[in-house]
Amino acid sequence: xxNFNFINFVIFIQLFITVRSRAIDSKEVSxxxxxxxELEKYKGRKNDEWEVExxxxxxxxxxxNIIKRMALESDEEFEAKIQELANASEEKRDEDVVDEVPNxxxxxDDRLMKRATISSSEYxxxxxxxxxxxxxxxINNIFNKSTISSLAIELKNIxxxxxxxxNIQTYSSKGVGALVRDHPEYWWIKKYxxxxxxxxxxxxxxxxxxxxxxxISQINSYKSKVNSKASSIATAAKKKSGTYNRLLYIHxxxxxxxxxxxxADYSYNVYGALLKNSCACEGYAESxxxxxxxISVPTICVSSSSHKWNYVYIKNWYAVDVTFDDPTxxxxxxxxxxxxxLSHKFFLIGSNTVxxxxxxxxxxxxxxLVSYLEFPNATGFKYxxxxxxxxxx
Length: 393
Prior knowledge:
The chain is of the alpha+beta class. The chain folds into two domains: 20-42 and 106-211, no CATH class; 43-95 and 216-364, Roll (C8orf32 fold). It is 33% helix and 17% strand. The strands form five sheets. It has a five-stranded antiparallel sheet, with helices on one face. Strands 10-11-12 form a three-stranded antiparallel sheet, with helices on one face. Helix 9 (270-274) links the parallel strand 8 (259-260) and strand 9. The chain starts with a helix and ends in a 29-residue tail after the last helix.
C-alpha cells in the first residue's frame, strides 16, 4: 500500500510540473503550458571553432592615415574627450538618427508595405508575421523607455487570431529573435519564458517573460552607462569628416579598447564591450551596430554558425568585422588600450575582397549565414545581398 501511495504521489507531481492549472467550462478545457528558451550566443561558442587563421606579421597601421584615429591617441586625450562628451542627451541622440535602408523584405502589414524604406533597427522585425510582430512590439514597448519596470508582457483575448498551440514556440522565438537582433541595446535579454492558455487548438492568452542575469535595478543602472558611453563615442565620431572616417573612428575605438574574452555572461553583449572592455564577437558586432546607427549609418548584425559581425549600408551593403580586425598576432593577444594589432582587412569590404593571398572574404573564414535569428527554431529570415567589391571613400 505504501508503494502504491508513493507512485500516486510521483504521478501527481509530474502532472503538476507539466500543467500549471486547469480551468473547466461546460465544453472546453483551458490549459496553461510553460516553456523556456535561451539565446544561442549564451550557450557558448569558443574562438577555436572559427575557421580562421592567425594573422602573422601582417598588421600594418600607416602613420599617415586618412584621419588621426582615436585608437592612436593617448589614453589621457581619450578620457578627456569622453568626459567632455559624456553628457550628450538621449533626446539629441534620437533626433540625429536617420538610419534608413530599402525595404527589401516588406512586412505583410500594409503600414510597412507602403513604406519605401525601413530603419535598420527593424530590419528583421519587418519580416515577421502580424502575430510575431505583436510579440516583438510588445517587448519593444516596455524596453524602449528610459526606466524599465517590468520584464514581462501579456497578450490577452487572442483566441480570434487563431494561433495554434503547435506554432507558438516558432512564433515566439521569431518575435523575440528578431527583436534581439534588431535591438542589441537590449543587451540584458538572455532567455525568455512563455506561458499560454488554450481553448481547443487555439491560444486564448500568452504571457512572455524575459529572463536575465541582471536585476531590473542593475539593468536600469548599467543601461544608462552603456547609452552614455555609446553616445560619447558617436558624438566624437561625428566630428570626423564623412561617413567613412566616422565609421573608421568607431571601428578603431572598439579594436583598441576591447580585449577578446569568451565565457562570461557579459562576453556576449554590449555591456561587456563598452563597460567591461571585454567581450566575444557578439559584443564587438552589437556595439558597432548601436554606435553606427547613432551617426545615422544603417547597420545590422549577421551571423554564421560560429561568429557574428556586421553589414553596413552606404548605398550598398558592405561587411565590417571588428573582431577579426582585433586579431592575435604571432600568438600575442593584446590587452585593452593597445592598438599594435589594429587591422582594417575586414572594414567595409565586399564578398570578393582579397583578405590574404588567394583568400577572399567568403573563403578566408566561415561566412555562411544561418537562416535563424538567436534561436534554432526562429527560421526563414532573409539577409541583404553584400556588394562584391569593397567600399571606396
